[in-house]
Amino acid sequence: MNEETTKTSRPNETGTAYLATRSLLKTYRKRIWSPFVSAIKEYGLIKEGDRIAVCMSGGKDSAVLAVLMKQLQRYSDYPFEVCYIVMDPGYSAANRAKICENAEKLEIPIDIFETNIFGVTEKTEKNPCYLCARMRRGHLYSYAESKGCNKIALGHHFSDVIETTLMGMLWGAQIQGMLPKLPSTNYPGMELIRPLYKVHEDDIISWAKHNSLDFLACACRMTESEVMDEDKSKRRETKRLIRELKKTNPDVEKNIFNSIHMANVDTMVGYKLHGVKHPWGADEENGD
Q1: pTM exceeds 0.85
Q2: Which of 98, 104, 175, 217 is deepest in the core (most CB within 10 A)?
Q3: Would you say the C-alpha torsion 235, 239, 245, 246 has a positive or negative sign?
């Protein structure tokens, strides 16, 4: 290997990509890297031969996920493939440029495809964020499948899990969690995985600040026009509630998270399984 080749192959140790990755393995190893690897192992999120589409939205969560997945693939004990897809639902020129800029900084080779989701949801008066999320999921599955992928990886984290659990109880009148992996009902053979399942949002925010990275908070036109969907409003309220509860019980987040891993069904008056409701007494009547 000649001197010129050695110089060009050596990573830029002052570049953003190198420093951001290094910080995950050093400064944030205990808070981000280790929980990331732990979730993958505990829930069996990645298998040998998988081809995974990491879905990037321009936000901090999917960005750190992309960096983590790139590093994991590089040093994994078993081979798997990763691609990085960005769905443009109708971003403004400035927001799209920001996404591309951050991807270049982090040396993530993104593949952008376009949809008109914002154009559709703008015409929806009720729950536009819910409709947007559902439409996004379908487009991501479809595009990932066209790229030969069998899994999509989303940036939902530990904080999303506990907030969703509380929101279901307080405003949805149901006890529900958020699964670390979920088979697709409309795309046979496809699966959704959440590798950040054990990573706290505060630690992701800290990592971004540590590396002077600025990501999109929310790029939708509804936010730009100051229209707040009910789901987002309730999520913010839930975040505030959790912060208040932590003042008197520092373990409240951990306790909520652990509760969905150990549901005592024997104490439930009713439950729903595979979309079928089982009200009080139904199991006895059926001889179960």
Answers
A1: yes
A2: 98
A3: positive
